[in-house]
Structure formats: structure tokens, C-alpha cells
Write a structure and sequence with these properties.
- The chain is an alpha/beta fold.
- Among the domains are: 131 residues, Alpha-D-Glucose-1,6-Bisphosphate, Chain A, domain 4, CATH 3.30.530.20; 80 residues, Luciferase, domain 3 (Roll); 145 residues, Rossmann fold; 92 residues, ANL, C-terminal domain (GMP Synthetase, Chain A, domain 3).
- The protein contains 19 helices and 32 strands.
- The chain has an eight-stranded mixed sheet, with helices on both faces. The protein has a seven-stranded antiparallel sheet with strand order 1-7-6-5-4-3-2.
- Strand 28 and strand 29 form a beta hairpin.
């Protein structure tokens, strides 16, 4: 077949010899990863196919011939693709020859010549768009069609059973609870209490609470808080682990119109003191074990222990007073989530109230959660992801299982004991479960588990594949932030094809990859990721907001969209370094090193360099008993990526510094002295 393109031959050759572009512009190539082959030449591992047709891996070698063309030969199938490039008057003609193409993937045998030509033309056309800078990197899921979106939301909510057209009396009570308290935790528990009062709402280390008990106890707590002078517009701090009393405090404050700052249990006492003073918090609700973090605060700040015991100064004692007579505030209390602080001081981000059922429908459009099931949430509730799952659980009338601390084996025990269908985790928890010995994992029947939803940090591609091979295709990877809530969700089908993808936007979400002038870049090109949905945060407390463009919020991340609309994260904008004039991201180096069986954890950062401006430094946790030295690591990266990606500094650590949500705190890694 022949295809004519309006570009110079040298330009198209430069693109053809970069196989990493293939997975970005050609539909059906999910990943193209360089392998370590220092003797035989560069070999690439291609993931070819779709979830429907099946994914096949092929080892391929790309080589330029003497005529300036290109050959792709699959070593494990014998298939060959040859590309000849020659100049015409105003175009460049490509002649493509496919030999034994069906061996690349069985589905190819079912394609006609016209199908193959159309596929090749579309992919090569996207390469041309990369050169010309076409503005194509925008993906919308219902955001620009309000009427259609509302119909989709209604269909999603009714089909899932969040609202049922039958049983009108219960439905009226359910809607009444939402109307009185709003589409927040307070309204969610009130609505669930009206519909299923005796169903277990929360199971924690201390016992079980039904939806009726959660609603009534939080109402009594709100009354006691009101009797002690708290009211609309006040702000309190909540410093606790995951348990029912934490939720009751959030719900009570919401009913009273009081804002709640969700304090990270991993913060230092000094940072907490700064937050309390800066935001003028009126009272603190604190777990007994975390009380030392606030013991030096001024005594004029009221403190309550979040304990169920009916003793002075506890939420249990306040609830036992049964102060139910308080005036419901028209002002909805806000939840203020602190950013992770991985690159500096945590900022308070005001979370918006969910706007109707659209929030529920958005997540359900990509994650198949069901009504009246059990959800295990080891992810911290003070984190956006754990909090979002908790809010969603009330609409689904799900029983939520909590534990004060995460333990991988105990997590499996909880799933088996409660026949849980859903697990809400952060990436480090995925790795900890996967690291359990096979005999430990086999001791628990977790066949009830249908969804493992991860968010909070990137998942390494090898971790994704190992987890799904071990537990089945039940992993969902959510990309978002405190500021934008969710942006994209990768389903197991997405992850089988492209293990490193962040997925596609859910219902009502719009994403764009923009250049410095805030224009969309071409498909496959790297730019800044912007997100728009109805759950964008309401701004920082005492800090300027991120950049915004046409209703889209800047995430601070760089990435690209592929030809199917899947998003890929290249890294944080502030993590990219320039070494010897080359732009280098730490994440591809971390991905490559994660494939080494000797490595348990890895973090890569940029550090100053007197000769190159900046260089990479790798901080590595070796697996017990493994043999690995810096020379082996540098050689491996040199052959797998490029010489600019080779970390000049290799530091072995017993553990990496992590926050309570599992994110690596790269700012705490020991600095390396500049080198020549």
C-alpha cells in the first residue's frame, strides 16, 4: 500500500524511528516499551490488541535500511512490516509492506486491505499533526451537552438503584433527607436512614452502627456542639484515624453549618499548630493516641476526644446528652481537605458540596459499583479519595468497613469476613497486598471482591499487571487531585491494554492537554493537563488558586492523550529537569526500575549539577537478600532508556519517606551534593 503525506522525508523518518510514538498515535498499540538488549540491538515490547480482541505482547526490532526506510520485525512471530520513504514533488510517499501480518495479532486476519490502509493512514496522519501542532488534545464526556448529560445521569442513577421509581413513600423520605441537609454526608446518612434504617452503615474496630444510629447520633452531637457555642461559620479541626466517631463528627458539623478541617495524622505538631492558628479553628476533635500532636496548643481552644466512652470531654459524652433541639442551618458546613504537601506546606482546599446525583453518576459511569454491598476503605478518610468513597457509600447504602491502621493481611481478612465487593485503596496498599506471600493470600477467600479502586499516586505498570494476574481484572486506577476531584478513571480493560494509563474521563468531565499559550496540543504531544467538572474545589484557604482556562483547572501535571482518548501522566511540572539541554522526567526511570525484581521501592528526583545544570538521583529500597549495585542500575537504565535518563546518584535506603496517604515525600529525601 502507498500513502502520501505533506511533510519532508527527513521529518517522517525521524518520527518512524521513535517507536514510543506508535502507542500514542496508532489505535490498537497499547504500549511500546524499550527492553534491555545491549548486545543484539534495541528491542521493543509491544502490547497489541484491545480488551475485546485480547492483548498480545510481541518483541519487535526496529531498524533503518540503506534506502532510508524502516523495518519492524517481530522476533517471536516472524511478522515483518517494511516502510519505504521517497520524495515526490510536494509530498512524501510511504510504501508499506506487511508480511505475515496475521501473526502480529489474530484480529488482523479479519481485516480487509481497506481497513488496514485506513488504520495506517489515521496513525500516520496523527504523526503529521504532531509536526504541525494540531489542536486535538481535548476529550469531553457529556460536559458540553447538558440535556444529554442530565438524561445520562438519570439513567445511571435509576439503573444502579440509587433512586427507585417504586416505593414512593420511602423515596419521598429519601429525597426529603437530601433536601433538608443537602447532597453531602449529612444528607446522605439522613436519606439512607429513611430508606434502610436497620442496615449496617459503618463497621470499625469498635463495633457496628446502623444508618439510623449514624443519623440520630450525629444529630445529637450537632445539638451538643450547638449548646457549647458552635454555629454556622465556625471551623473545627478533626484529627483522627478511620472510625465511626470521625464520620459522626463530620456529619454533625455539616448539619450545624460548621466547617471541618480534616487534619492529616502524619503532620507534625508544629504544622498542625500553624494550621489551627492560621485558620482560627474554634475547637479540635482528636483521637487519644494523636493528642500529643496538639498538647502544646493554647488552652482557649476547646478539645474533645473522639471516643465512644461516655466520659467528660468525649464525643460519646456529648452524644449521650441527647441535645436534639438545634436549628438546622441554611449554610452547609464545608469539609476542608489538606493537600498532600509532597512539595511543601499543605494547603487547605475547600471541597464543594456534591451537586445532585451527578457526582454519583460520574463515578458509576466508570466503576461498576452496586447498591447494598460492602465496601472496605483502608484509604484515610481525611484524604480526598477516602472521603469521596465515603460520600458515595451513602448513596449506594453500602456498609463501610474501616480500620484505624492499614495491615495488608488484615485487609484481606476483612474482605473475606464481610464478603466485601469493593476495596478503596491508595497505591502503596496495592503493593503491600501484592507483596504478601502467596500462601498468606491464599488463606483468605476474597472471591466476593469485584472492584479494587486505587487513587492518590501513579501505579507502576508492572504492579498493575502483577496485581491483575494475581487477583483478576478488578483493578481501577483513578487519576485526580484535591483540587479537581477526579479527572480520569482507567478500567481493567484499559489497564490490560495500557498498564500505565490514567484512563478516560467519567461522565460530565472534560480534560485537555494545553501548551504554554493554553491551546490544546496534538494527540501524543506532552503538555499541561487541565480538568473541568462540577466538583472542582472552591479554592484554597488563604492561598491563590491554580491557573484556570475556559473553566478548566490546571492540575500541575504534564501528560498526553493517545489516539483512543486515554490519558497518560508524564510527571509533575515541577519534577521535570533539564540535563545537558534534554528534558527528562523521573517517572519513566521509576517505571523502568520497578521491573527489576531486586527493587522493592524507588523514587527518582532531580538534583543540581555543576556541569549539566541538573541530574537524576535514584533512591532505592532493595528487597531483602537481593544483590544490586549502582553500576548494574546505571547500565540497565542506559540500555533501557537513554544516557540522559541514567541516574548519576544511587542511594540505597531502608524505606522511603511516605505520608499517611502513601505518597512518597520527595522533599524529605536526603539532598545530594552537586557533582562535576
Amino acid at each position: 500500500m502507498t500513502i502520501d503525506l505533506p511533510v519532508e522525508p527527513e521529518v517522517i523518518r525521524s518520527l518512524l524511528v521513535d517507536p514510543q510514538l506508535y502507542s500514542r498515535v496508532f489505535v490498537g498499540i497499547g504500549a511500546c516499551e524499550q527492553l534491555e538488549t545491549p548486545i543484539a540491538g534495541t528491542t521493543w515490547l509491544l502490547r497489541i490488541g484491545t480488551a475485546e480482541s485480547g492483548v498480545h505482547t510481541r518483541r519487535a526490532a526496529f531498524a533503518a535500511d540503506r534506502q532510508g526506510g524502516l523495518q519492524l520485525r517481530c522476533a517471536d512471530s516472524g511478522a515483518l512490516v517494511s516502510v519505504r520513504v521517497r520524495r515526490l514533488d510536494e509530498t512524501t510517499r510511504l510504501t508499506l509492506t506487511f508480511l505475515s501480518a496475521a501473526r502480529i495479532h489474530p484480529a488482523v486476519a479479519e481485516l480487509s486491505n481497506d481497513d488496514v490502509i485506513a488504520w495506517a493512514e489515521a496513525g500516520l496522519g496523527r504523526m503529521v499533526e504532531l509536526i504541525s501542532g494540531a489542536h486535538t488534545s481535548t476529550v469531553v464526556n457529556g460536559e458540553n451537552r447538558p440535556l444529554r448529560q442530565r438524561a445520562q445521569v438519570a439513567g445511571q442513577i435509576v439503573s444502579t438503584g440509587v433512586v427507585r421509581p417504586l416505593r414512593p413513600l420511602r423515596s419521598v423520605k429519601q429525597i426529603g433527607g437530601l433536601a433538608k441537609w443537602g447532597f453531602n454526608l449529612a444528607g446522605g446518612y439522613a436519606a439512607a436512614a429513611a430508606y434502610a434504617p436497620g442496615r449496617a452503615a459503618v463497621v470499625d474496630d469498635r463495633g457496628v452502627r446502623t444508618f439510623r444510629e449514624m443519623h440520630e447520633r450525629s444529630r445529637a452531637l450537632a445539638g451538643a456542639m450547638s449548646a457549647r457555642g458552635l454555629g454556622p461559620g465556625d471551623a473545627i479541626g478533626l484529627l483522627t484515624r478511620n472510625h465511626a466517631e470521625m464520620i459522626e463528627t463530620m456529619v454533625a458539623a455539616g448539619k450545624l453549618g460548621v466547617d471541618v478541617f480534616l487534619l492529616n495524622a502524619g503532620l507534625s505538631g508544629r504544622v498542625i499548630e500553624n494550621i489551627v492558628q492560621r485558620h482560627r479553628l474554634t475547637a479540635l476533635f482528636v483521637d487519644e493516641e494523636l493528642d500529643p500532636l496538639v498538647q502544646h496548643l493554647h488552652t482557649d481552644i476547646d478539645r474533645y476526644r473522639t471516643d465512644p466512652d461516655v466520659v467528660d470531654g468525649t464525643t460519646g459524652q456529648l452524644i449521650a446528652q441527647k441535645h436534639n433541639g438545634f436549628r438546622a442551618s441554611s449554610r452547609r458546613g464545608r469539609l476542608v481537605v489538606l493537600t498532600s504537601g509532597t512539595s511543601g506546606t499543605p494547603k487547605g482546599a475547600r471541597r464543594p458540596h456534591p451537586r445532585g446525583f451527578a457526582t454519583v453518576a460520574a463515578l458509576l459511569s466508570r466503576i461498576p459499583l452496586r447498591m447494598n454491598e460492602t465496601m472496605v476503605i483502608p484509604a484515610p478518610l481525611f484524604h480526598t479519595w477516602g472521603l469521596a468513597a465515603l460520600q458515595l457509600s451513602t448513596a449506594l447504602r453500602a456498609t463501610v468497613v474501616l480500620s484505624s491502621r492499614f495491615d495488608a493481611e488484615d485487609c484481606l481478612r476483612q474482605i473475606a469476613e464481610h464478603r466485601a465487593s469493593t476495596l478503596i485503596v491508595v497505591p502503596t496498599m496495592v503493593q503491600r497486598i501484592l507483596d504478601l506471600p502467596p500462601e498468606v493470600r491464599a488463606a483468605y477467600d476474597i472471591s466476593s471482591l469485584r472492584v479494587v479502586a486505587s487513587c492518590g499516586a501513579p501505579l507502576a505498570g508492572i504492579t498493575v499487571l502483577r496485581f491483575m494476574d494475581a487477583f483478576g481484572d478488578i483493578l481501577y486506577n483513578t487519576y485526580g487531585s484535591t483540587e479537581v476531584s477526579w479527572a480520569t478513571i482507567a478500567t481493567p480493560e484499559d489497564l490490560r491494554v495500557s498498564p500505565t494509563t490514567a484512563g478516560r474521563p467519567p461522565l460530565g468531565t472534560r480534560i485537555a492537554v494545553l501548551d504554554k499559550e493554553r491551546r490544546p496540543v496534538a494527540i501524543g504531544a506532552v503538555g499541561r493537563i487541565y480538568v473541568g467538572n462540577h466538583m472542582l474545589f472552591d479554592g484554597y484557604v488563604n492561598c491563590p488558586p491554580p491557573d484556570e482556562s475556559h473553566g478548566l483547572l490546571d492540575t500541575g501535571d504534564l501528560g498526553y492523550l493517545d489516539a483512543t482518548g486515554r490519558l497518560f501522566i508524564a510527571g509533575r511540572d515541577d519534577e521535570m529537569i533539564i540535563s545537558g539541554g534534554e528534558n527528562v522526567f523521573p517517572r519513566p526511570v521509576e517505571e523502568a526500575l520497578s521491573h527489576l525484581p531486586q527493587i522493592s521501592e524507588v523514587a527518582v528526583i532531580g538534583v543540581p549539577d555543576l556541569d549539566f545544570g541538573q541530574r537524576l538521583a535514584a533512591y532505592i529500597v532493595k528487597r531483602e537478600g537481593s544483590d544490586l549495585d549502582p553500576h548494574m542500575i546505571r547500565t540497565y537504565i542506559r540500555h533501557r532508556l537513554s544516557r540522559f535518563s541514567v541516574p548519576r546518584d544511587i542511594v540505597f535506603l531502608p524505606t522511603l519517606p511516605r505520608g499517611e496517604t502513601g505518597k512518597v515525600l520527595k522533599r524529605l529525601l536526603a539532598p545530594v551534593q552537586p557533582a562535576h
